[in-house]
Fold this protein.
Amino acid sequence: MQIMIVDSAALAVRTLGDARLDSPLAPLLDARRATQHYFNESDRVLYDDTLGMVTARGVTVDQLPGFEPAGPRRRIFFDPSKTRVAIVTCGGLCPGMNDVIRGLVLELTTHYGVNRIYGFRNGYQGFVASYGRDVVELTGESVTGIDEMGGTILGTSRGEQDPEEIVDCLERMSINVLFVVGGDGTMRGALRIAKVVEQRRERIAVVGIPKTIDNDIPYTDQSFGFQTAYSAAAESIRTAHVEALAAPNGVSLVKLMGRHSGFIACYAALAKNDADFVLIPEVPFALDGPDGLFAHLRAKVKHRGHAVVVVAEGAGQEHVEGDPDVRDASGNAKLRDIGTFLKARILDDFEAHGDEINMRYFDPSYSIRSVKANAHDSVYCLRLAHAAVHAAMAGRTEMVVGRWHGRFVHIPMALAISSRNDVDPHGDLWTTVLEATGQPVTFGAPAR
Ligand code: F6P
């Protein structure tokens, strides 16, 4: 992964050409005044938001890096009556994918008057002839009520497909705008598609709506679906706590998703503040010895009569045997099962010390991401979808939409895939988790 320096050049968004047509949304813009809530399309959302960060740049105000604000433009690049749009959803499921599809379709049809919108099935496979996936026409009517369902009506898949073949398909269907809903692997694929489009001197906008329950996409406040996913995960912690309380020396162990980033585990544990230990990929922990997890767990159970342990699936991988190089279709490392490993080792440890234990094991797994979006995420998805449509119709490409310091912005795709958002072991989220659980700062493991 190439870490990018965030300066004005890194935040510049590519445009297909001059926007020469009046936007049908211009009257809406005329009614808006520049206030603290709305600012002009030529303005920028500052990347840095503390005096210290700004001062450290040592540049003049006009040189401070800033994101291009999202929102409707006065002039657009594509003629709505002749615009053909493709939508595809890729990668693992995430609450809100259907909300995004619906938001895109309704904004395109109702406000811009774009009436040729096609859904491609099962991720990038949908563009590749050999898979034989059908293409569905999307209309305001066909997306009615889809936000009531989890998942994605278009289906999804993991894995790369040949960008040349994908662009062949876009050309064959005379597509002008491609909306891609997916995570980092998907956005890497979208960037390759945009590059092929550029090489062929085509004018096809490629705009991403980043999705992941893991919240590991950088340069955006939060990814959509994350809040719903951790709310569902918090319910598992609630039931785990009830079980632990009911049995003598009850220990509940909850394994949650979170491959490289422990946001779900942290937020769920804060939402349902009953976890005694939270283990995440970003913070190493020792198992044995006087400072290790097991000693602390035994002490907690002795003292309180019960305990709840939350572990993110990517935590403590170094403790679990197995091949670290096995990968899934998206190129992600296949994780060894820390949940069942810890369950067995905790039982062994209590037995070895002659302590009673009633272990309950919870693995809510996919059930936290296949649910429909909660109200917060539904709003967020809709606003991201609108932002994506405005950007694409104005001719922006090779970018994703996101929110930075509470404002909707355009993020260049290369930047969005240049790093990973993770829990900073020295940051205030992890400090809050340490405060909420009372767990030791380290379990005797050297910091990473
Ligand atoms: O990336 C999101 C995520 O939910 C991870 O937390 C999890 O490891 C992964 O997807 C599992 O997805 P799948 O089983 O679909 O590959």
